[in-house]
Amino acid sequence: MTTQNTRLENLQINGLTHDGRGVGHFEGKTIFVTDAVPSDIVTANIIKHHDNFDEAECLEIKTPSPERVAPFCPVYDECGGCQLQHLSLDAQRHWKNQNFITQLTQAVDAQQYKTAPPLLGGDTHYRRRVRLSYVISKKDKVARLGFKQKASNEVVDIDHCPVLTESLNQTIKTHKAALLNNASRALKEVTLVEASNGIFGLPETVSEPQNAQPYYTLNTHSPLKITFPTEGFIQINPSLNEQMITQALTWLDLKPTHKVLDLFCGVGNFTLPIAQQVHTTVGIEGEQSLVETATFNAQQNTLDSVQFYKGDLFQEVTPKPWFKKQKYDRILLDPGRQGAFNLSKVLGKLKAHIIVYVSCNAATLIRDIKELEKQGYRLTKAGMIDMFPHTTHTEVMVQLTRTHKALKKPKSRPTFKI
After folding, report:
1. What is d(CA 352, CA 98) in angstroms, rounded to the nearest whole number?
2. 90-122+237-402 is a CATH 3.40.50.150 domain
3. What is the model's pLDDT at position 208?
4. How far is Cα of residue 340 from the mean position of the Cα atoms in its chain?
């Protein structure tokens, strides 16, 4: 039996966890090893003991994996922004996809579903939004601008980040000195975003204020202009965002006569492309400011068949006018990491034939699918979207189809814990 501070020699790594640790086995027990990758042979030290698995640190790589690569970022070992640059891009995508599909098939009724090829794009200069920290270090009194260190509030100073767009990198280079002049011992943050009409988010003390509203363009059925708040949510990878929308529209199998409900709609990233193809579209969002922005976006794109409502989707929704006694042909769900547990318990009442669920958290997605199964939905398609290369994060999408037969007695499946 492994115990804390047990040294394991020649441990073969044969998997990768969702958070980027290597997976090995010793005497029938699973070992999660920090900084190890599949096909490494390592010397590891157990640092934490659990009943079903142990956690370990990698002391030495005895034989490196063929998939182990040199990180391309000079501050990768310090910075907490990326977690997987030491693993080849193909291997990153393989393990992200495999982990998602394995979790899915172990937890839900996956007898009749099809796996879609992962949606892929470039792995550098893809990120159009960034949150930077700047501070005068309490340790050495040096002002720094960049990202927080791994497991620390110390800031790693950067002049350039390989995953940011070239325009964002140029903005950092141009305004870094001015930002550092405003640094203090209290940690400050600045969020920069590249829109189709410029870079937004610089403090007024650093740059002239932008009077225009930022927007991005979607090239879907026909070009759409999507205004968004500078500090608000935006899909950070524009290329993958368009691929994701295209796949969602395909999986929804839209017809001109359809009435479609978009839940957690934001400023209309999915809603407006859907509205270009159907008779009626309804978008629900929890923040009034986003509802107003989404409504403005519909107006500026002359989409009169869209209605947006403010609604707290974590509270009871069945009495709401957009829900009560309503029927929809299709539903799209795109919640945050917390998922849509309570909502998933009642969506069957709307009798939509197809639900497409987009998620950045496979665990909450799987939890919610189980609730939808109870209302007669079955998983019919699933796929991974590599929205965030070189990180452990990913986006996933599933299609659920109504069979009119509720799941009476689920098969015995492993418990999937969040």
Report:
1. 30
2. yes
3. 80
4. 15
Residue 131 confidence (pLDDT) above 90:
yes
CA separation for the pair 248, 277 (Å, rounded): 13
| 58 annotated active-site | no
Mean pLDDT of 73-92: 95
What's the CA gap between 384 and 185, in Å, rounded?
Answer: 41
Domains 7-63 and 90-122+237-402 share a fold: no
Catalytic residue among 79, 82, 265, 360: 360
User: What are the structure tokens assigned to 131, written together?
Assistant: 């949150």
CB-neighbour burial class of residue 302 (10 A; exposed 0-12, middle 13-18, buried 19+): exposed
Cβ atoms of residues 215 and 200 within 8 Å: no
What one-character DSSP code corresponds to residue 79?
A: B
pLDDT at 413 over 70: no
Identify the burial level of 339 via C-beta atoms within 10 angstroms of its C-beta, where 0-12 means exposed, 13-18 middle and 19 or more buried.
Answer: buried
- Residue 349 Ramachandran class (φ > 0 left, ψ -120 to 50 alpha, else beta): alpha
Q: Are 142 and 136 in contact (CB under 8 A)?
A: yes
| Nearest of 280, 375, 264, 273 to residue 326 by alpha carbon | 280
Does the pLDDT at position 416 exceed 50?
no
**What order do you get walking across the sheet with 155-157 strand by strand?**
155-157, 143-148, 129-136, 188-195, 198-200
* Nearest CA-CA partner of 400 in 366, 359, 363, 369: 369
Domain segments of the chain as ranges:
7-63, 90-122+237-402, 127-236
Mean pLDDT of 93-103: 96
127-236: CATH architecture: Beta Barrel (2.40)
Torsion of CA 305, 310, 316, 320, to 10 degrees: -50
Q: What is the pTM of this model?
A: 0.92
Q: Which residue has the higher pLDDT, 205 or 337?
A: 337
Candidate CATH numbers 2.30.30.40, 2.40.50.140, 1.10.600.10, 3.30.470.20; the one for domain 7-63: 2.40.50.140
Nearest to 134 by CA among 193, 88, 197, 180: 180
Kindly state the average pLDDT of the residues 330-357: 97
pLDDT of residue 123: 97
Cα atoms in the Cβ-side hemisphere of radius 13 Å centred on 359: 24
Mean pLDDT of 386-390: 97
Say if residue 4's pLDDT is above 60: no
